[in-house]
Amino acid sequence: xxxxxxxxxxxxxxxxxxxxxxxxxxxxxxxxxxxxxxxxxxxxxxxxxxxxxxxxxxxxxxxxxxxxxxxxxxxxxxxxxxxxxxxxxxxxxxxxxxxxxxxxxxxxxxxxxxxxxxxxxxxxxxxxxxxxxxxxxxxxxxxxxxxxxxxxxxxxxxxxxxxxxxxxxxxxxxxxxxxxxxxxxxxxxxxxxxxxxxxxxxxxxxxxxxxxxxxxxxxxxxxxxxxxxxxxxxxxxxxxx
Length: 241
Description:
The chain is built from eleven helices and no strands. The protein is an all-alpha fold. It folds into two domains: 2-194, no CATH class; 195-241, no CATH class.
C-alpha cells in the first residue's frame, strides 16, 4: 500500500517541481533586472543610516520597491513613522487592484495557499503569473507562480542587503546607470502583455492621468489615481455597446 501511494504521488510532485522551474526560467530576465535596482536601494538605505541587517528585513517584510524607495527618501533620525506608513500604504495601494485581478485565477486554491502566494506578489510576479494564467486557461499554476515569485523575492532581499554592505564603499551607485534597470524591466513586461492598440487604451489613460497628477499634486497620489483611472477606462471600454 505504501509503495502504491508513493507511485501515485510522484508524478504530482514532479509536475509541481517542473512548474516551479518553468516559473524560475521565465522570471530569470526580471531577476537580472532586479539586481542593479536592489543595489541602488540598499546603498541609499545605508547612506540614511540603516544597517545591512535592517535593509533586507525591511525589503523582506514589505517587498514593494516603490514604497521602499519612498520610505528611504523620507527617512530621518528620528523617523517620521506615521508619514512613512501613510506614504507606504498609498504607494502600495495598487496591490488591492492587482490582487483583485489575480483572484479569479486563484479560486481553485485553498485560502491559506492563496494568501501565502499573495504575500510574494510584486508588480513583476503579478504580471508573470497573470499572463501565464490567461495563456494556459483560467487557473493560476501555483507551482509556476511561486517559482517565479520566490525567485524574485530572494533576489530582491539578498541584493538589497548586498547594496547596504557595499553602499559605503561604492557611494552613489546611480552614477553607474543602475537606476535605469527597473524602467527597462517594465518596458519588457509591457511588451509581453501587448494585445493591440485597442486593448492598450486604458494604459494610455492611466499614464496621462498619473503623469498629470504627479506634476500637479504633491506626494504619491499619482499611484492610486493613475491605477484607478486605468481601471475605470478599462471598465468603460469593456461595457457592451
